[in-house]
């Protein structure tokens, strides 16, 4: 380990992250470790990232939080049975993309971008998957609920933060937007969307 052999803080951070049920922020680690200094925690995390680089498990950041995960190239060794692939409907995929690129966003804003009404069940599926969460209410008439992505969304898609989302140009050049060009054109100019065509 790059830090001094047996450094107590590095060991404490390692043990805390290993035992945590969810990713922890620097602030959470400081509080858990008796108000340890944030700068010292960051140094300990840097040491742990270096130590675990290339090993069977690695320490990774998801948003502002840190957690251990199996090295991606070894994950298949730990699966006792093949997981059922979660397949999203086209409507759910479009809604997830809109939330990811425009969060926080309300249902009305999602519908304006898509050009069609969005069935409640579509958002429910994304929330049950743990990829979308209610993020409060918009300070507007009716105080509509607004939605945002979660740490689980970042982890599932291997993103450190939303800044790692591919740009529209990258998606189009990869051929991923051909079936939904109209929907993504509407992202740039919602006024181009047609009238609501019924729930999806």
As a percent range, the share of strand residues is 5-15%
CATH homologous superfamily name of the largest domain?
A: Winged helix-like DNA-binding domain superfamily/Winged helix DNA-binding domain
Biggest sheet: strands, sense, closure? 3 strands, antiparallel
Second-tier CATH architecture of the largest domain: Orthogonal Bundle
Count all strands and give the number.
6
Kindly report the CATH topology of the largest domain.
Arc Repressor Mutant, subunit A
Q: Unreliable segments (pLDDT under 50, ≥5 consecutive)?
A: 81-85, 190-199
CA gyration radius, whole angstroms: 21 Å
List keywords for this structure.
single chain; 200 residues; alpha+beta; Arc Repressor Mutant, subunit A; 2 domains; three-stranded antiparallel sheet; 6 strands; globular
Task: Summarize the structure in short.
The longest helix is centred in the first third of the chain and has 15 residues, at 38-52. Helix content is 42%, strand content 14%. The chain contains nine helices and six strands.
């Amino acid at each position: 380990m790059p830090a001094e052999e047996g450094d107590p803080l590095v060991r404490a951070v390692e043990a805390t992250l290993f035992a945590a049920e969810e990713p922890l922020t620097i602030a959470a680690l400081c509080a858990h470790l008796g108000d340890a200094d944030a700068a010292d925690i960051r140094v300990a995390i840097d040491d742990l990232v270096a130590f675990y680089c290339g090993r069977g498990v690695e320490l990774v950041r998801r948003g502002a939080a840190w957690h251990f995960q199996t090295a991606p190239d070894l994950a298949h060794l730990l699966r006792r049975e093949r997981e059922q692939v979660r397949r999203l409907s086209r409507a759910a995929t479009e809604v997830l993309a809109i939330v990811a690129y425009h969060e926080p966003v309300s249902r009305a804003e999602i519908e304006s971008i898509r050009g069609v009404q969005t069935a409640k069940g579509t958002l429910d599926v994304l929330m049950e998957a743990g990829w979308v969460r209610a993020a409060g209410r918009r300070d507007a008439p009716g105080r509509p609920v607004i939605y945002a992505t979660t740490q689980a969304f970042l982890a599932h898609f291997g993103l450190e933060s939303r800044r790692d989302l591919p740009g529209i140009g990258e998606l189009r050049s990869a051929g991923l937007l051909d079936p939904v060009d109209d929907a993504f054109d509407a992202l740039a100019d919602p006024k181009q969307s047609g009238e609501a065509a019924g729930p999806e």
